[in-house]
């Protein structure tokens, strides 16, 4: 806190009111409101690169060479979340379009990715096989255990789909020596999207360079139960079409179930399991629909 006070004093900011939300401070000084947050060196590089690609849809940083960054407070206009998430997807498509480049990759780039995902699928197959074996031995399983056992075929169906299509993806990419990269925001959620006169993405702390589907995967994990992700993907691809191998890998990733673990609270465990199972049902329905479209 002392470091923050020294920073505010240095920039002649005299707070009359401030509020803290996680790592972000909203500070009012002389009738103006600012957002203040710890700065990372990597974020400076990302901002410079975004500017060089003419992507300026983030709150402008008002200072430089400090441990904190100051940005103007931008109020969010209120409108339906169904439209907000479409606007967010449009902005992400623009981000990827503006920052696309192709580069040569190391020989084992896709091989390592394949081995990591394949290893995760095999681990989950063993994990759920052991878990269902333990549950079946219980005379009176708990509600959360019963919920899991009732839906175990769903989990294995999703794992089978992921395993099958991972092989299909690897056949497409194993001989490639180049890949398409973009700047990933890497933490996409509606909380990090502001709509005013312009659209803005905030919270770039986790930004990195990688293939574009990882932004879509994060958005899916955060909001798939609330919105029609198949529709959002269509909207995204109107502006930034995915390559065949990218689309297949995205479907593989979203089909892989989370590792469901029993918690101390029965209610919280049941709620968590229900949410993840609902997500898998939605995923399988979408995947089956996508298969029909392919045919």
List keywords for this structure.
295 residues, alpha+beta, Phosphorylase Kinase, domain 1, Aminoglycoside 3'-phosphotransferase, Chain: A, domain 2, 2 domains, 10 helices
Protein described:
The protein is built from ten helices and nine strands. Helix content is 55%, strand content 15%. The protein is of the alpha+beta class and 295 residues long. The strands form three sheets. A four-stranded antiparallel β-sheet has the order 1-2-3-4, with no helix packed on it. The longest helix is centred in the middle third of the chain and has 29 residues, at 109-137. The protein has helices at residues 2-10, 41-52, 81-99, 109-137, 143-150, 152-173, 213-223, 229-239, 244-255, 266-294; strands spanning 17-21, 24-29, 32-38, 68-72, 101-104, 178-184, 193-195, 199-201, 208-210. It folds into two domains: 2-73, Phosphorylase Kinase, domain 1 (2-Layer Sandwich); 96-294, Aminoglycoside phosphotransferase (APH), C-terminal lobe (Aminoglycoside 3'-phosphotransferase, Chain: A, domain 2).
Number of helices: 10
Q: Let me know the average pLDDT.
A: 89
Number of domains: 2
CATH superfamily of the largest domain: Aminoglycoside phosphotransferase (APH), C-terminal lobe
* Count of extended strands: 9
CATH topology of the largest domain: Aminoglycoside 3'-phosphotransferase, Chain: A, domain 2
What does the oligomeric state look like here?
single chain
How much strand content do the residues show? 5-15%
Give the low-confidence spans.
none
Q: What general form does the structure show?
A: globular
Distance between the termini: 60 Å
Q: What is the topology, as strand order, of the major beta sheet? A: 1-2-3-4
The CATH architecture of the largest domain is Alpha-Beta Complex
Most strands sheet: 4 strands, antiparallel
Q: CATH first level of the largest domain: which class? A: Alpha Beta
- Helix percent band: 40-55%
Order of helices and strands: HEEEHEHEHHHEEEEHHHH
């Amino acid at each position: 806190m002392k470091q923050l006070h020294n920073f505010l004093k240095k920039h002649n900011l005299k707070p009359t009111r401030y509020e803290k939300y996680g790592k972000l401070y909203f500070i009012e000084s002389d009738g103006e409101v600012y957002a203040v947050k710890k700065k990372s060196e990597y974020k400076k590089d990302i901002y410079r690169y975004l500017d060089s690609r003419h992507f300026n849809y983030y709150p402008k940083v008002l200072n430089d060479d400090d441990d904190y960054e100051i940005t103007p407070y931008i109020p969010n206009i209120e409108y339906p979340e169904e439209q907000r998430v479409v606007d967010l997807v449009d902005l992400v498509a623009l981000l990827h379009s503006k920052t696309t480049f192709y580069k040569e990759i190391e020989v084992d780039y896709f091989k390592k990715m394949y081995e990591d995902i394949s290893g995760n699928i095999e681990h989950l197959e063993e994990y759920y096989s052991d878990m269902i074996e333990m549950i079946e031995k219980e005379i009176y399983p708990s509600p959360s255990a019963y919920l899991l056992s009732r839906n175990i075929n769903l989990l294995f169906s999703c794992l089978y789909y992921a395993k099958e299509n991972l092989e299909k993806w690897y056949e497409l990419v194993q001989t490639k020596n180049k890949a398409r990269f973009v700047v990933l925001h890497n933490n996409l959620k509606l909380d990090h999207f502001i709509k005013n006169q312009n659209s803005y993405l905030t919270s770039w702390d986790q930004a990195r360079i990688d293939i574009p589907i990882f932004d879509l995967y994060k958005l899916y994990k955060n909001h798939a139960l609330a919105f029609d992700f198949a529709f959002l993907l269509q909207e995204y691809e109107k502006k930034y079409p995915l390559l065949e191998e990218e689309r297949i890998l995205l479907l593989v990733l979203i089909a892989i179930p989370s590792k469901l673990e029993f918690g101390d609270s029965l209610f919280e465990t049941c709620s968590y399991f229900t949410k993840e199972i609902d997500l898998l049902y939605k995923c399988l329905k979408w995947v089956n629909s996508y298969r029909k479209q392919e045919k």
